[in-house]
Amino acid sequence: MPKEFEPSISEREFVQAALLEGKRVDGRTPYDVRAIEIHLGPEYGAAEVTLGKTRVAARASATVVRPFPDRPNEGQFMLNLELSPMASATFETGRASEEEVLVTRVLEKAIRQSRAVDTESLCILAGEKVWSVRVDVHVLDHHGNLIDCATMAVVAALLHFRRPDVTVIGEDVTIHTLEERNPVPLALHHIPICISFAFFEDGQPANHSCPCDRLVMDPSRLEERLQDGDMTVTVNTHRELCALSKAGGSPLPPDQVMRCVQLAATKGAEITNLIRKAVQDTTSRTRPGGGGGIGLDR
User: What region holds the Exoribonuclease phosphorolytic domain (predicted)?
Assistant: First the structure.
């Protein structure tokens, strides 16, 4: 299996020196995210999101299944992530890497465990038939911060997805085609957005007045390789903290964590509006089978 590149000592020193001046090697300030582009279509539930050069595609689908015995009135929601060698030479087909496991866990916490999808609305006939919604996530290009890009792709796919309308008479269930009836959007309790941060410890003067100078939002692949710690904050437009994930690294003081939550709430609201606008614009000018997109340069 190919190994991930190891940044040189000069690269580390250069990144740290730039951060002390409030700059980053790609020209961004510490709290800037890379340019975001959202493309929807050609079918309902198909979304592709680029975050800088990181690119993730997501596709939502639904099938009719039997509900779980302990939840007869609830539908099902599943996420499936695939990291292929096409995205990075360090990924192997058929073998889950540590990064794949980490990204999957964060997505599960952010979207499924936060109950973003209203599974009760997916019930067709209690105890007999429910919708099972599945989102397949494919990483196409990996240039850092897979979690945030994948979350945006999943959310865009869910908002853009439409399931067939259903008529229930007694125990008879009729699933209508898109030509017979307009499809039905999914019911979402809230829209979770992940915002990831990277932290740098070395080179920070002890008496520096602003410890946040070593904190960056939306880390690039180089910054991920050099970081001393990271944290992903999941928020929604209600400014609710849905999840917080920190897989090791340097410890963080409480005030640093709270600052990250505040920054994530502000940036998450911007990204949510961007996704909603992309979905609204695409839906208003296309019929089933059409597509469109929108972008934001930050």
Answer: 33-164, 190-265
Rounding to the nearest 10 degrees, give the CA dihedral for residues 122, 128, 129, 133: 60
Q: Which tokens sit at 41? A: 């279509």
Domain, as residue range, for 257:
19-284
Q: How many domains does the chain have?
A: 1
Q: Taking the model in full, what pTM does it have?
A: 0.88
Q: For residue 162, what is the domain's CATH number?
A: 3.30.230.70
Contacts of 198 (CB under 8 A, 6+ apart): 215, 216, 219, 223, 224, 227, 229, 230
Cα–Cα distance, 230 to 250 (Å, whole number): 8
Residue 22 pLDDT: 84
Q: pLDDT (tens digit, 9 = 90+) per residue, 223-254?
A: 998 898 899 999 998 989 999 998 878 788 88
H or E element at residue 125 = strand 123-125
